Amino acid sequence: MRTITFAANQGDIGGGEVMLLHLARAARDIGAPVHVVAPAGSPVHRAARDEGFDVAGLGDSRRDYLLRLPGWSRGRGLLWCNGLAPAFATAGRRDRVVHLHQVPRGKQAHAARAARLRAAVTLVPSRSMAGEVPGAEVLENWTEDVTASGARRSGRTVGFLGRPSADKGVVVLSEALDLLRGRSGDPVRLLLAGEPRFVAPEDQRAVSAALASLDGLVEQPGWLRRPDFFSRIDLLVVPSRTPEAFGLVVAEAMSARVPFVVSDRGALPEVAGPAHPWVAPAGDARALADTIEAALGAPDAVRDAAVSAARDRWEERFSPEAGRDRLRSLLGRLGVL
Fold first, then answer.
1. Residue 97 and residue 81: Cα distance in Å, rounded?
2. Is 237 helix (H, G, I), strand (E, B) or coil?
3. How far lies 147's CA from each of 115, 155, 236, in Å?
4. Among 276, 291, 253, 12, which Cα is nearest to 169's?
5. CA 163 – CA 180 distance, rounded (Å)
6. With 236 labelled, which of 127, 161, 221, 297 sits at a CA distance of 20 to 30 A?
C-alpha cells in the first residue's frame, strides 16, 4: 500500500482544510500510510500534528510553502492536492489528485487548467460544481457526527454559522428577520456565529448596518463549537446569494437533527435533498422570511419528519462511514490499496 500525502491549500482552517483532516482520518482508518504537509506552525499543521499524523511543516509563509512543496513531495507516494494552490505548484507531476473545493473563476480558471495537467483525477464535492469543472469527478464531502445537547431556548431562535458577509446572505437574512418582526409580537432572534476573516471592509460595514437595524435581536459570540451552536438554535438558515460548492454546515445540521432553511444556490439544495421542504430563492428577503416562518411554525409532525429524513440522508451520504466507503473505492481505482 502506497503512502498518501495530503497537501494543504493554506495554513488557516476553512471548509477545505476541515475536509483535508476528514480525508486524512478516513485514509488512516482504511489502513493507508498518511502524511500531511502544510505551512510550518500553521493551524492546519498543528491540528494534524495533534491528531497524531506524520506531519511536515514547510516554509515560514504560504508562498515559501508552495515554492518548497514540489521538491519536498517527490517520491512520497500519491500527492493529494487539497486545493488549487498546491495543485498549481506541482502542475505537470503524475500521481496526483487535484481536489478543488471552490469553482475556479477568472485567473484561477486558467491556473486550474494548468494545475490539472497530468493529474490522475480531479475531484469536486458536488454535482453542481462538477457542471462547472469539465471532466471532474464528484467526491461528496462528509462531516463528523454532531450531537446537539440541551433544550431549545425559545422556539424562535435562528442560527447562522460561517463568514458573515453579503455573499453568504447575512444582509438578506437581516432584512427577512426585520420583515418577520413586523408580522408578530414574538420576534425571531438570530445567533450569528463566525468571524469576518477575508471579508472586505465595505462588506463588513454593510453587514454591520443590516444587523444594527434588528435592535438587539442579534447575538454575535464569534466562533462556537458545533455542538454548542446547534444546541442554542431552533432553526439553521443558510441564505447564500452566491453558488456554494457544497455546504458543510447543512450536513452538520442534518447530523445534529436541527431543521434548516437553505437558499437555492449551488449545491445547497443538492445537499438538502429533493424532498427538503424549506428552500428559498436566493437574495429574496420576503421569500426567505416566508420560508423561515413556515419552518418555525411547522406542526411537530412535519418538523419531526423533516429532521428524521435529513438525519437518514446524512447517515447514508455524509457520515464518516459513507465517506470512508467512497474514499476506499476511489483509492482502489487509483491503485493505492
1. 6
2. strand
3. 39, 19, 15
4. 291
5. 23
6. 127
Q: What is the rounded CA–CA span in Å between residue 30 and residue 179?
A: 50
Query: Tell me, what's the pLDDT at 279?
Result: 98
- Alpha carbon of 174 to those of 77, 85, 143, 208: distances in Å? 49, 35, 28, 10
The residues facing 138 across adjacent strands are: 124
Residue 199: per-residue pLDDT? 81
Cα–Cα distance, 203 to 223 (Å, whole number): 19
Beta strand spans in 4-58 (E)? 4-8, 34-39, 54-58
User: What integer pLDDT is reported at residue 337 of this predicted model?
Assistant: 80
- d(Cα 48, Cα 33) in Å, to the nearest integer? 14
The residue assigned the cell 483535508 is 20
CA dist 269 to 29, 250, 279, 324, 335, Å?
30, 10, 7, 23, 34
Tens digit of each residue's pLDDT (9 = 90 or more) over 140-168: 999 999 998 755 555 899 999 999 999 99
Q: Given this model, what pLDDT does residue 150 score?
A: 55
First to last CA, the chain: 5
For Cα atoms 44, 237, 308, give the angle at the middle one, nearest 5 degrees. Answer: 95
Using DSSP, state whether 38 is helix, strand or coil: strand
What are the structural domains of the chain?
A: 4-142+319-333 (3.40.50.2000), 157-317 (3.40.50.2000)
105: Cβ–Cβ under 8 A, 6 or more apart, which residues?
A: none
Q: What length does the chain have?
A: 337
Q: Could you give phi then psi for residue 170, rounded to 5 degrees?
A: -70, -35
Q: How far is CA 259 from CA 147, 189, 194, 255, in A?
A: 14, 16, 20, 10
- Which residue from 122, 21, 30 is spatially nearest to 324, judged by alpha carbons? 30
pLDDT of the residue at 60: 86
Q: Which residues of the chain have pLDDT under 70?
A: 150-154
In sequence order, the β-bridge partners of residue 54 are: 35
Residue matched to cell numbers 454591520: 208
Q: In the structure grid, which three cell numbers stand for residue 143, read together? A: 462531516
Cell digits for 287? 421569500
